[in-house]
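Hi again,

Forgot to attach this to my earlier email, sorry! This is the prediction with adenosine-5'-diphosphate bound. I've pasted everything inline since the attachment limit keeps bouncing my files.
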Amino acid sequence: MTARITIVGSLNMDLVIRSPHIPQPGETIIGSDFQTIPGGKGANQAVAAARLGGQVNMVGRVGEDTFADALLDNLKSSGVDTGFVRRDSNSPTGVALIVVDDAGENVIVVASGANMQVTETDVAAAEQAISSSDVLLLQLEVPLRVVTRAAQIARANGVSVILNPAPARKLPSELLQLVDVLVPNESETELLTGIEISSQAEYANAARLLLRTGVNSLVITLGRRGSLLASSSNDLESIAAFKIKPVDTTAAGDAFLGGLAVTIGEGGSLQEAVRMGNAAGALAAMRFGAQTSLPSRSEVLQLIDGEKPESIIGRDT
Ligand code: ADP
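Structure tokens for the complex follow:
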């Protein structure tokens, strides 16, 4: 069964420069390799899900500039339906300025532009697409009231709501109660719970706290350490990452979300979905850039098939 997925979220053009080190305030450095790479968490997750076999609708806003043309072309060439992406005549397309140093560390500043102009009316226009989806996939790079409205439509129509609470911020219970699967990374988990995490016990406490907010299930992504899975009926379960040599972890989280959403939309279990997410995240970390690094379904299945199932689940890395 093909997973039907709607994403309400951001589209950004990433302006990326390689630099020997991250500059200090006031410092000028000669860098190299300037690239413009399609990004934005919403669009990244849309492309990730489409490359992994999902039938994907994107809801969002871009400006009327050339970055918008490039972003829309890129989404379409990955098979994403862009019929619900509006062009805003008053705001520029979202842009992220990114500096990546030789150690793979990065600093990022985002000018949200048209992303912050997405309205509840834009969401209402896509109501039919949302309500006929298997999964609604959300992040926090568009206004919170828009995210909440989309989740309300999904919940009212029995559509699974997956929320990636990034960039990190505190969230009202009005939104959390509408979420089926909450997918924070480590720092987002700390911000959402106020718990500074340094041990497995603290993960369990954080998970208990988040499950009490009304989300049905929780998946915490832990970079090269894989992911933790918790739902109301289960204990915390660790699903190990694939062993790879990372080149650039930009969009690893977005690839993970794409894999998770597609598998849930296809009717797979949460464990299967996390394994698919881990494989997609690992492959994205092996390549440079955001949407340039997102893997195909066959690449992901190859990586999963290459591992013995028992070595994927519960492996301690
Ligand atoms: P984010 O990019 O949102 O901070 P993470 O860094 O937790 O998210 O990465 C998301 C997922 O991608 C991880 O759960 C893991 O499955 C995969 N991943 C990320 N970095 C690596 C890595 N170095 N090695 C293997 N898998 C990775």
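The longest strand covers residues 12-19. The first helix runs from residue 41 to 51.

That should be everything now.

G.
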